[in-house]
Structure formats: structure tokens, C-alpha cells
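TASK: fixed-backbone design
INPUT:
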């Protein structure tokens, strides 16, 4: 908890291998959402001139980095993985303090970043093309993959180390030079990650970090003519704007955006499994996961037993200081997000849904200085209502009743998003049929819709994504061009 007498540390941008103050001379505060008296640090409030310096440095560093053998680039990532693993406890504490997820979740996220660095470290030795037989005699044909140049990485606050790592690691091992803008609400874990990569030996100019807002840093970064590709994770509206700017100069754009993820609970489901899956996916990380379940689509007949057990479990959740290991649910990231969640409760009521648990703001005692609320469950939500369609990004679950399996699949697909989807059932035919029919980039059976592994593709379809995949063996595709070679001998 805060020690009001200690002045917060000021952190710098990382440009051309140096830690530098912004040319603006301004900083902004990084606040602890569980205790807003606690200023975690001051960061550079940068502008377009800092962005330009970072992009120019990356452009200058690119050729030497691109011509370094890929396994040697990978080795730097492996070294960074080892350093990060050694700092797991302090990095998890920092993450929990600046973002508000529980210390257990924060440890899980830092550990995942370690595994991602290891995976892409190894990928340096596997960046292979293809050989294809020619139809002509004595002609050898093959493909190689080459880096793009300067790439911009823009990350959200809700996974401030896992998402930057899963963008940076494939970008770097593929031989690109990076300019990275972390989210202003949780920038410090990201900054520490850059420090670790510096310590691991990333050459000067290859990796640059510029902090500041979306409008003053994100906008000029996306628009910079030397930026060949942009990988963005965040909200739907910002992503569409980036796609439009990228299209103008034919820059490659990767977007991972919002979700309105369903969990179908069929009457034949193991109810304990279903309750576990939905409780975890809807409320853990305070509902602030892009893969969170915000709609439970429950087959008629199962609604009452399912809701009763879910409410009983939700009532027991311990909400409070996320750095206390016994806490199960932390705060919202900020006042705006808390108010959005509370506003959707009112919208739901106006639309005829019934609040059966939670929803109230907690502002007494241990909750007095943070953005806390009790997780909310609403029944009788209709699919085409605002609550049934909009991404809330908070601990608010809507229960939608389905007539049968077929109806449930239709309801699950009845949104513009398509990130993740889950079904709880003991019927293998229905599980496999849902895998086929689910309009989502990731489908889970008897598992929470959130909670993904580090070494298999991640991403959505429909309005959730541009379709490029992150993580696993497909991740380097976005960061490379394929070159086709013909040789007559
Ligand atoms: P956001 O407001 O869109 O911000 C994401 C990042 O974009 C931040 O770094 C932000 O900077 C920056 N940004 C804002 N405006 C910009 C602009 N005009 N040009 C360039 N960059 C700009 O999203 P968020 O609130 O941080 O994150 C929550 C959203 O992310 C939710 O919709 C969630 O579903 C989505 N998300 C998706 C995934 C996925 O993989 N599909 C994963 C996690 C989160 P500042 O914040 O510093 O101003
Ligand atoms: Mg913060």
C-alpha cells in the first residue's frame, strides 16, 4: 500500500538504445486501480517528434538486425526469457499493482511471457520456407521468409506483459525493428520487459519504446510512412481507424479487438463443470479479458439449477486488494470502466432483464480507494438487446435462455464479434457439431472461454479480428514476406 512520502519514479522512453526524456518535457501518472492514492510511476507524455525519432532509429538499425542469423536473434529472446523468469515475483507484483489483476493471475501472465519468449527464441531455428518441385528440368524452386522492416506494436492495458511479448517476440525473431507503444493505464510492466530485452542484448535501435496517449503517440506512429506493418490489440473503434490509415499506404495491419463471447450450457452438462467455467470466464480478471464470457446461453430446464449454483459461488468471491494472495477479484482498471459496467446494469434493467446477483459499487473500508464492484448476474437477457450485443468489458454476465441445442448455437452466433466461444456438454456429437458451427476463432469444450495457451494460434473472426493469427506457429506469418526463388542449374 502507498507510502505517500516517497515520490514516484520517473521512467523514460527507450529510443536508439538510450533511455531518453520526451521532447515535450511532460509526464503522466500511472495509478494503482485498487488504491488511487498510489502513483506507481511517472511516464513520458510523448508526441510525434519522439515517435519520429524512434521510427528513424528503427529504420537505421533494421538492415544489420535483418541480416543477423535468425538463430542468433532467437538466442537473445532465450536470454530474455531466463532474466524474466528470475524476476517473476517482482514483475508479477508490479503488474498486479498497476493493472489490478490478482497476484495469482499476474504470476500466470508473467510466466506466460517467459514461455512465449522461449517459444519464439526456438523459432529462430525454425523460420523455414518451402521447396516445391518445378515442372521444368534442372530448375530448383523454393521460398524464403524475410522481415518487413519497421513494425509498430500497439498494446492494450489488460495483459500488459503477455500481449506485448506475443507481438514483440515474433516480430524480433523474424528480423524486424520495432517501435512499441504500451497502454497508458498499465505501461510499467511493458517498460520493464523492454529493459529485460535490452539487458539480454538487443542491439541499439532494434527495439524502441515510446509512452503516451493513443492520440499523441498512437496516431503519428500508425501514420508514419516508414512503418511497414502495425500490430494492434485493443478496442473495435480504434482498430477500425488504424485499418483505414494503414490501407491508405498499403501498410500491413493486424487487429485483435473486442468480443461478446458465449458459453453454451446444455441441459446434459456436468453442472459443476459449467458453473466453474462460467464463473472463471465471466468474472476472473474482473471480466476484463477479451475472451471473457459475457453471455451464458443456457438450455431451458437447466436455467434454474445453473443460476442457483452460479449465484452461490459468486456470493463467496473475495473482492479486494489484488496483491493479497487470498483475493479472487480485483478492481476495474479505472473509473470510466467501472461506470461503463454499472451503466450496462441499468441498460439491462430497462431492457427487461432481472438482476439476480451483485452489481453494486463497493466503496467502504478496504474498497474505499479503488474501482471495485460486486460481479453481476442478470437473467432474462434478450439476444438482440444492447446488453446482449455490446462488449461491456467488466464483471457482468447475461443469461440468455435457449429452447434447445440448435437454438443455443443460433443465439451464440447472433453477434457481430467472433473471438472465443465455449460449450459445456457431456454429449460428444453436440460438442463436435458446435466446434464446426461456432462463429469464433477459438472454441473451448468444457473449458472457460478465456484462458489460452502460449503455443497455439490465437485470434478471432468476424468483427473481432483482421484474421492474422498471433502466438504459435502462425505468428511469424504477419511479420514476414514470402520470397519465391527459381534457380536453373
Ligand atoms: P483501446 O482504448 O483501443 O487502446 C488500445 C491501445 O491503442 C492503447 O495503447 C491506446 O493508447 C492505443 N490507442 C488509442 N487510440 C489510438 C489511436 N487513435 N491510434 C493508435 N493507437 C491508439 O483499448 P483498451 O481499452 O486498452 O483495451 C480494451 C479493449 O481491448 C477491449 O475492447 C478488449 O476486448 C480488447 N482486447 C482484445 C484482445 C484480443 O486479443 N482480441 C486482447 C485484449 C484486449 P492509450 O490507452 O495509451 O491512450
Ligand atoms: Mg495503472
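OUTPUT:
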Amino acid at each position: 500500500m502507498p507510502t505517500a512520502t516517497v515520490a514516484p519514479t520517473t521512467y523514460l522512453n527507450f529510443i536508439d538504445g538510450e533511455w531518453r526524456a520526451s521532447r515535450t518535457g511532460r509526464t503522466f501518472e500511472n495509478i494503482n486501480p485498487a488504491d488511487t492514492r498510489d502513483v506507481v510511476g511517472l511516464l513520458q507524455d510523448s508526441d510525434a517528434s519522439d515517435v519520429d525519432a524512434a521510427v528513424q532509429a528503427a529504420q537505421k538499425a533494421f538492415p544489420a538486425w535483418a541480416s543477423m542469423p535468425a538463430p542468433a536473434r532467437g538466442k537473445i529472446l532465450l536470454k530474455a526469457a531466463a532474466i524474466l523468469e528470475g524476476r517473476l515475483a517482482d514483475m508479477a507484483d508490479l503488474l498486479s499493482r498497476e493493472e489490478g489483476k490478482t497476484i495469482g493471475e499476474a504470476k500466470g501472465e508473467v510466466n506466460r511471457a517467459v514461455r512465449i519468449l522461449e517459444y519464439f527464441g526456438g523459432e529462430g531455428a525454425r523460420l523455414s520456407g518451402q521447396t516445391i518441385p518445378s515442372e521444368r528440368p534442372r530448375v530448383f524452386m523454393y521460398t524464403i521468409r524475410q522481415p518487413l522492416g519497421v513494425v509498430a506494436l500497439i498494446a492494450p492495458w489488460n495483459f500488459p506483459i503477455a500481449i506485448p511479448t506475443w507481438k514483440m517476440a515474433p516480430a524480433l525473431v523474424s528480423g524486424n525493428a520495432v517501435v512499441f507503444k504500451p497502454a497508458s493505464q498499465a505501461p510499467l510492466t511493458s517498460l520493464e520487459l523492454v529493459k529485460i530485452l535490452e539487458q539480454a542484448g538487443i542491439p541499439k535501435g532494434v527495439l524502441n519504446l515510446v509512452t503516451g496517449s493513443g492520440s499523441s503517440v498512437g496516431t503519428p506512429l500508425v501514420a508514419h510512412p516508414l512503418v511497414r506493418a502495425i500490430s494492434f490489440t485493443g478496442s473495435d473503434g480504434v482498430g477500425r481507424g488504424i485499418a483505414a490509415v494503414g490501407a491508405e499506404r498499403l501498410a500491413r495491419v493486424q487487429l485483435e479487438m473486442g468480443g461478446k463471447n458465449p458459453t453454451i450450457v446444455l441441459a446434459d452438462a456436468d453442472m459443476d463443470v459449467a458453473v466453474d467455467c462460467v464463473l472463471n470466464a465471466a468474472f476472473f480478471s474482473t471480466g476484463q479479458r477479451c475472451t471473457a464470457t459475457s453471455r451464458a446461453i443456457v438450455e431451458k430446464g437447466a436455467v434454474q439449477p445453473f443460476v442457483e449454483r452460479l449465484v452461490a459461488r459468486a456470493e463467496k468471491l473475495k473482492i479486494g486488494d489484488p496483491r493479497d494472495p487470498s483475493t479472487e477479484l480485483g478492481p476495474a482498471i479505472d473509473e470510466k470502466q467501472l461506470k461503463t459496467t454499472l451503466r450496462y446494469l441499468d441498460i439491462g434493467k430497462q431492457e427487461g432483464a432481472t438482476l439476480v446477483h451483485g452489481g453494486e459499487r463497493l466503496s467502504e473500508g478496504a474498497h474505499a480507494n479503488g474501482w471495485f464492484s460486486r460481479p453481476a448476474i442478470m437473467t432474462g437477457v434478450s439476444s438482440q438487446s444492447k446488453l446482449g450485443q455490446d462488449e461491456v468489458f467488466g464483471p457482468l454476465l447475461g443469461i440468455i435462455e435457449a429452447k434447445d441445442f440448435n437454438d443455443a448455437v443460433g443465439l451464440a452466433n447472433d453477434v457481430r464479434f467472433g473471438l472465443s466461444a465455449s460449450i459445456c456438454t457431456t454429449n460428444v456429437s453436440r460438442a463436435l457439431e458446435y466446434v464446426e458451427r461456432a462463429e469464433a476463432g477459438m472454441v473451448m469444450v468444457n473449458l472457460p472461454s478465456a484462458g489460452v495457451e502460449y503455443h497455439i494460434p490465437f485470434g478471432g473472426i468476424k468483427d473481432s479480428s483482421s484474421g492474422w493469427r498471433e502466438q504459435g506457429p502462425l505468428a511469424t506469418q504477419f511479420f514476414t514476406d514470402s520470397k519465391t526463388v527459381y534457380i536453373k542449374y
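COMMENT: Residues 154-159, 181, 183-184, 213-215, 218-219, 222, 233-235, 238, 241-242, 256-259, 290, 391, 393, 419, 460, 464 surround NAP (ligand 1) (CB under 6 Å).
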